[in-house]
Amino acid sequence: MSLAAATRDAVRERPFLYDALRAGVVNYTAAARSLDVDGEEEAIATALRRFAEELDDDPAHESDARVSMKSGLGRVESLDAESAIALQVGDAAYAEDAGSLTGIVATGTLSPPALAEVLGRLRAADISVDAAGVTEDALVVVVSRRAGPDALRVVEAVVQG
Description:
The protein is α+β, with helices and mostly antiparallel strands and 161 residues long.
């Protein structure tokens, strides 16, 4: 494997570095030091520069959605016909009037990369996420009641075009 290919593989294992390369905010020498790639530091830094030049700088996603907040969500083990499901992935379901969690729901034009950006921003804001899901027309993030208003602002900032 060439040094350039090994460098690209190492970057792909660190999504934060990939995003920083796309944004053009990387100290290439420092990044080269942090990668576990066999080769000279300056050669790895050069490979990083070349990789960054090839990356698309278009937005990761385009979304235009309306955002709302649902209180009283909780995880349920079984669903009855009257349960209003906010999110279900496999056997895990979150329903209305079943607990003290808050769901942030965006509906409109969405894409999976929108969820990635929402989760990254929530992590940066130190907001813990209990569950999350996305389709092409809906995105749901389940957080604690106390974190609901802050999570709502984060989701709005990401998905409202």
